[in-house]
Design goal:
Elements (H helix, E strand, L loop, with lengths): L1 H25 L3 H19 L8 H15 L16 H33 L23 H26 L6 H7 L14 H32 L3 H10 L4
């Protein structure tokens, strides 16, 4: 910013000197031309002061031009060995480029100052993404398994309630207590079930078959454990060290 401001001030001074020299050489009444130019610059500065602040590069350039015109009452005397004077168009082009660079540098400086202020006030915080956000693969609502479970539970409850109501409202005789409620209990005799020999034989054969099946299952389990499971001492050792947890 300081380097660009110095360059802009030097170019403004050169432009003011060239304009002053051109005004004095072209018009016999040079002070009037300089005064007119100063009036124009001051009017332009007053007009632009409503849009820009005093620290804006355009306002600074106008101030430097006015100061240079006020100081440049006499055109510069050429010195031997000095560079040839630069044209006004070239100087204005240089001034335009310098003002653009100055505006860019000014915006960067303001951003840097704002960042520095935020750092000092501890208002800017650094964010660290712990886990990247992902698109959900399943819907959160409605919870379909929960709704299905509640529906199944309500269905069982409704079925049990209907069965209970049907049992209460049914007056048919199904048990001995229902019979005793209708007639005298002394008139009713319970005849025990008489088992025949064939039924006893079938019952005995059923018990023998169950016993043989149990022995076969136990033998198969022992054989499977012998052929497919590791030795018993290894299983006990693993259980002691907690490998089966």
């Amino acid at each position: 910013m300081q380097r660009l401001q110095a360059e802009s001030a030097a170019i403004d001074a050169k432009i003011a000197q060239v304009k002053a020299s051109q005004g004095k050489t072209s018009s016999p009444n040079a002070p009037d031309a300089t005064a007119t130019q100063l009036g124009q610059l001051r009017a332009e500065m007053t007009q632009k002061s409503a849009l820009y602040s005093d620290r804006h590069p355009i306002m600074q350039g106008l101030k430097r031009q006015i100061e240079a015109l006020e100081k440049a009452s006499v055109p510069p005397v050429p010195i031997q060995g000095q560079e040839a004077p630069v044209g006004l168009d070239v100087l204005e082009t240089q001034q335009t480029n310098t003002e653009k660079n100055l505006e860019i540098a000014s915006s960067k400086l303001m951003a840097a100052r704002l960042g520095e202020t935020l750092e000092k006030d501890q208002q800017s915080e650094k964010l660290e993404v712990i886990e990247q956000p992902t698109t959900p693969q399943e819907p959160i609502k409605p919870n379909r398994p929960k709704i299905a479970g509640l529906g199944l539970l309500l269905a069982f409850a409704a079925g049990a309630g209907l069965a209970f109501l049907g049992e209460i409202s049914d007056k048919a005789i199904r048990r001995s207590s229902d019979v005793f409620g209708c007639i005298d209990s002394q008139l009713v005799i319970a005849i025990p079930y008489i088992t025949t020999r064939s039924e006893l034989r079938r019952k005995r054969l059923r018990l023998i078959a169950l016993f043989i099946a149990a022995i076969a299952i136990i033998a198969g389990a022992v054989a499977a454990a012998y052929f497919f499971l590791p030795p018993l001492d290894l299983i006990i050792a693993k259980a002691r060290v907690g490998l089966f947890r």
